[in-house]
Structure formats: C-alpha cells, structure tokens
Amino acid sequence: MKKLLTTALITFSVMAFSFAQQTVASDFYLMKTQKDAEYVLKAINTELHLSETDFNKVKELLFTSAKSQEEQLRSQPEVERVNVMKSRQTAHIENSLRTIVGIDKYNIYLNNKAAIEAKLKELKKN
Question: Rounded to two decimals, what is the model's pTM?
Fold first, then answer.
C-alpha cells in the first residue's frame, strides 16, 4: 500500500511540475497591426539610436512580422498556439536584430530590454 501511495505521489508531483514549467511568452513582439510595429520600432530606436540603414532594416523586419502575425491571428487561434507564435516570432526577431545591429548594440538591447518594454507600454497608452 505504501508503494502504491508513494508511486501515486511521485507521479502527481512530476505531472504538477511539468505543468508549472509551461511559460507564457512575452507580448513585446506581439504585433497585430502595423501601428504596433511602429511602436516597437520607436521603443527599440529610443534605446539603441539606430543608424538610418539599421533603422530601415529593423523597420522592414518588424513590419513583415506584424503582417504575418495579423494574418495568423485572424483565425482566432487558441491560447497555446498564440504562445508558440509569440515565442517563435520573438526568437526570429531577436536573432535578426542581433545580425542587423551587431553584437555590441544587441548587448545594449538585452541590458535595456526592461526600459524598452516600458517605453513600448508608454507609447501604446498615448
């Protein structure tokens, strides 16, 4: 009987732990419209002070991503699918951003990401 209870307790613990590990992706790069992409671009540019060339490349990246997300979100996907989409978009955008701006500015981006997210929230309120 003790073995049965112990096995059940361990199984339950493992299941609870695996569910607790599921995370919700950040909404920072969730852009449903071109206006959302403009806000994200302004927030990033505020901290990184992008050159004109880099600004245009990041703008193209964000606007393309926003258009793709807008099309995917039209079908009203379930929450889990939206989370996967946000995770993939974030990884794609951040990898592309690192390539566009270089390692030094990308490290600045990583160090100032909280400030960039705060700036984005401020821009969306206005």
Answer: 0.73
**Residue closest to 12 by CA, chosen among 4, 24, 22:** 4
Euclidean distance between CA atoms 70 and 6, whole angstroms: 49
- The amino acid at residue 72 is Q
Q: Residues 97, 106: contact at Cβ < 8 Å? A: yes
Assigned token pair, 50: 């992008």
pLDDT tens figures, 96-105: 999 999 999 9
Spell out the domain ranges in the chain: 26-125
Distance CA 9, CA 17 (A): 12
pLDDT digit string (tens) for 55-83? 999 999 999 999 988 888 787 778 888 88
Break the chain down into helix, strand, coil percent, rounded to 5. Answer: 80, 0, 20
